[in-house]
């Protein structure tokens, strides 16, 4: 009688054969090493995650520590709309007549107080302009004002050459309310007159607008403009203030730099609205103003004595009759 023989074992187990891991003993030193590797992986992953947050502006991109998300993440976007709606920004020449400077500040402060707004004054020497003309200071000044006032929605830059002449006009109702801005927007208009091939878009909605400008007879004016607080505003101001543009020999410095980025960057033109010059930037001198709607007239919000701070002119002297008009109107009230 023959008995069946058991299958013969081989010294070569089949590939991919499962091994009994319970019989494998890992030395304690190796276990500690593996544990440390896992911990290191977790730490590195966490650091990488928070680094990505920082790069996207969720950490460190905020301009105020007053608003903090869980975990200490600063946020300014969440603050927008919690403060006064408008901040009026003006750059002052530190070499200017102090008495005149105080009158310019008072002009803005009285208007802001009347409508519940804020003011922000900066000196042209506050910012590292290097060899650039001091007129460039308006760009970092607005950026600075946004940092100091993260809860405000709009920042209205107004040159020291201009006076607010009709304090009863509320800039928000006058320009910024979407229903009003929709009526004011000048569409399909050459950015640089008279015949620039780049024109303002004709299909923009007012709630998508983040910067409002005017146009004088030569091009975009940087004397009076408004920007909406937010990430796009910071991008716009940083792009405008790029060292490449400041070092380039533009004939009109920041004005020509503004026209350049508006015409060559669709992301900026797509957020820009142009309004009639006399809406927020009427020129006292008609020969410098937009021929159709640029000269200041009684009742307008702003009278701008454009260029009075140079060309051997005196802003204090030219503005004096208008300061007198404002004082007389205030005494009647």
Automatic annotation (TrEMBL):
Gene3D superfamilies: Spore Coat Polysaccharide Biosynthesis Protein SpsA, Chain A. Pfam families: Glyco_transf_34. The chain crosses the membrane at residues 41-60, 72-92. InterPro entries: Glyco_trans_34 (IPR008630), Nucleotide-diphossugar_trans (IPR029044). Keywords: Glycosyltransferase, Membrane, Transferase, Transmembrane, Transmembrane helix. GO terms for molecular function: alpha-1,6-mannosyltransferase activity. Residues 1-21 are annotated as: Disordered. GO terms for cellular component: mannan polymerase complex. GO terms for biological process: protein N-linked glycosylation. Belongs to the glycosyltransferase 34 family. PANTHER family: ALPHA-1,6-MANNOSYLTRANSFERASE MNN11-RELATED. This is Alpha-1,6-mannosyltransferas-like protein subunit. It comes from Massariosphaeria phaeospora.
